[in-house]
Write a structure and sequence with these properties.
Blueprint: E1 31-34, H1 36-42, H2 50-63, E2 67-71, H3 77-88, E3 97-103, H4 106-116, E4 121-129, H5 132-139, H6 143-161, E5 168-176, H7 183-197, E6 205-211, H8 218-231, E7 238-244, H9 251-260, E8 265-268, H10 282-290, H11 303-314, H12 335-347, H13 382-393, H14 399-416, H15 422-433, E9 439-443, E10 446-447, E11 451-458, E12 461-467, H16 472-484, E13 488-497, E14 511-519, E15 522-530, H17 533-550
Parallel strand pairs: 1-8, 2-3, 3-4, 4-5, 5-6, 6-7, 7-8
Antiparallel strand pairs: 9-11, 10-11, 11-12, 13-14, 14-15
The structure holds 3-methyl-2-oxobutanoic acid and zinc ion (ZN).
Length: about 550
């Protein structure tokens, strides 16, 4: 048997009984550091070339990131060239700090400084691995040996920085594989590094706690972070940073709980690219904060541009159901959802907090439009088609008309096998409710003196309709009744103006009318648009009478 859970051991949770983080709420955005150009890049089948890195760097700056890890220049020539380019071509805004990753080895640290030379402010990010599996099986070193690597790296980082006084340097240390390291040992190593760096108000340090591999549920990681937050030295002069990977699918949750546990800073990538299952997705976490009324201090409203650039640079697709960003995330297929969204949107006013069923945020905030919310398929109810007609064509179908249209849409979706696009729904509506034979309205007018004056054609014969009655519609219906010999009564009638700024509503249609007639005791519906109200009303009546004739009522 190859699927054998006995192969694995549970992780031992940290023995922490005084945890505070479950009671905390995130009320302020953490400092973000985008690691797309380093961690994200290292995880690509085809790493980014310099042009792609420049495009992604510009996007990160545009999104408002103030800390950007730009690469691992000591390990990759394209990374080195890219870092030199953005510095030499003055592409780094004054308020943005770039950072570069290096292992804790002298030649690599030297090369990292060569890459960053000339930057206004920069972070040198040094790391070594600390977990038991790394100590015992990868490095063959005991705890003392691992700590010595960290201390030596920290010392070199500090000493070499003195050779580049033109740059304001900050230092970052990561005990790589922190999430699988004994918290006491991780603390010991971090404190040893800080003893070398002696952070202070003008030169803060960053202690980054990576869940290099996500190996526990996020609450355990939060305990680990809270432990370091409570016990680490120089706390006021360091930023505790978290860097979570998504192996168990909880990278965002882990980062959120870690911030509740005291982390000040979060590393991640746009849309979550990164090693294996990816880095924690900053878009998701930032939008999660946003929906809680916290300003994420990032500009994400042009989500489609973000997606386009990230896709172009990483050559990776974005899942259609990706939180907040996927193309289907503001789309409701189910009829009851569509009805509910429609009702909430109708009642919404700009001066009240967002509260729309099934839509946790306003799609407009991300540059998406309401048009994308509803697709009409066989799961949709009457609300879906009504919403599309209203939103895209300015047609406000009354409820009784929606009820009449619903089975027609349902049948069409079943035959069509898939979502109906808005043009198809529009055509279906008019094909159903505006039959053009046997009767055709040729000419019409209404005068206060003479009342109705209209001509209607059927099979080549013209009939003149004249009379005052109770307004044009009643006059028209009673004359039609006389011509056809049918009993025709008006049951319901609604009309509205079509907003001129709705380009799809028909180039010169300004009015829409919906009528429900009783013809020989049976329902018949008609709808029409026209340049004027009278035309729309009479055409809608003719349509309903045609429908009755078509159905032999
Ligand atoms: O995931 C990780 O541990 C890293 C470190 C180098 C910070 O990317
Ligand atoms: Zn990582």
């Amino acid at each position: 048997m190859s699927f054998d859970h006995n192969k694995y051991r549970p992780y031992h949770p940290i023995n922490k009984t005084d945890r505070q983080w479950p009671n905390n709420q995130i009320t302020q955005t953490p400092k973000w550091c985008a690691v797309d150009l380093r961690d994200g890049n290292q995880a690509l089948m085809e790493p980014m070339n310099v042009a792609q890195k420049v495009a992604l760097f510009k996007l990160l700056v545009k999104c408002g990131f103030k800390e950007i890890e730009v690469g691992f220049p000591a390990a990759s020539q394209p990374d080195f060239d890219f870092v030199r380019k953005i510095i030499e071509e003055d592409m780094v805004p004054d308020d943005v700090s770039i950072q570069a990753l290096t292992q804790a080895r002298e030649p690599l640290i030297e090369r990292t400084y060569e890459a960053l030379a000339g930057a206004k402010t920069a972070v040198v990010h040094v790391y070594n691995s600390t977990s038991p599996v790394q100590r015992n099986q990868v490095f063959g070193l005991d705890k003392a040996g691992i700590k010595a690597i960290a201390v030596e790296g920290a010392t070199l980082v500090k000493t070499i920085s003195a050779r580049y006084p033109a740059t304001h340097w900050n230092f970052e240390y990561s005990p790589e594989s922190f999430s699988a390291t004994e918290p006491e040992f991780a603390l010991e190593v971090c404190n040893a590094v800080l003893d070398v760096w002696q952070p202070n108000a003008s030169q803060r340090a960053i202690i980054n706690l990576p869940a290099t591999v996500e190996c526990t549920s996020p609450n355990v990681y939060a305990d680990q972070v809270e432990y370091i937050h409570e016990k680490i030295n120089f706390r006021e002069f360091i930023d505790i940073s978290v860097h979570t990977h998504n192996d168990r699918g909880c990278a965002v949750a882990a980062a959120e709980l870690a911030v509740m546990a005291g982390a000040d800073r979060v590393e991640g990538t746009l849309l979550g690219n990164g090693e294996r299952t990816g880095n924690m997705d900053i878009v998701t976490m930032a939008m999660n904060l946003y929906t809680q009324g916290v300003d994420p201090e990032l500009t994400l409203e042009n989500m489609d541009e973000i997606i386009r650039t990230v896709k172009e640079c990483t050559q990776l697709p974005v899942h259609p159901r990706h939180p907040w960003a996927g193309e289907l995330v503001f789309t409701a297929f189910s009829g009851s959802h569509q009805d509910a969204i429609n009702k909430c949107l109708q009642q919404r006013t700009d001066d009240t907090p967002w509260d729309v069923a099934y839509l946790p945020i306003d799609p407009l905030d991300l540059g998406r439009s309401y048009q994308e919310i509803i697709r009409v398929n066989s799961q949709s109810g009457k609300g879906g088609a009504a919403f599309v007609l209203q939103n895209e064509y300015g047609l406000h179908m009354p409820r009784w008309m929606q009820l009449a249209f619903s089975p027609i849409v349902q049948k069409a979706t079943e035959n069509h096998q898939g979502a109906l696009d808005s043009q198809t729904i529009y055509d279906l509506f008019f094909d159903s409710f505006t039959p053009i034979a046997p009767w055709q309205l040729e000419h019409y007018g209404w005068g206060d003196q003479d009342g109705l004056n209209a001509t209607i054609l059927a099979e080549g014969t013209a009939h003149t309709l004249q009379g005052k009655s109770d307004g044009p519609l009643h006059a028209f219906v009673s004359q039609m009744s006389a011509i056809t010999g049918d009993s025709i009564e008006i049951q319901d009638y609604e009309e509205h103006a079509i907003r001129k700024d709705n380009p799809q509503a028909g180039s010169d249609a300004h009015a829409a009318t919906y009528v429900s007639l009783k013809v020989n005791g049976q329902n018949a519906f008609g709808a029409a648009t026209a340049t004027d109200t009278l035309g729309a009303a009479l055409h809608a009546c003719v349509a309903a009478i045609n429908m009755a004739a078509r159905n032999n009522l």
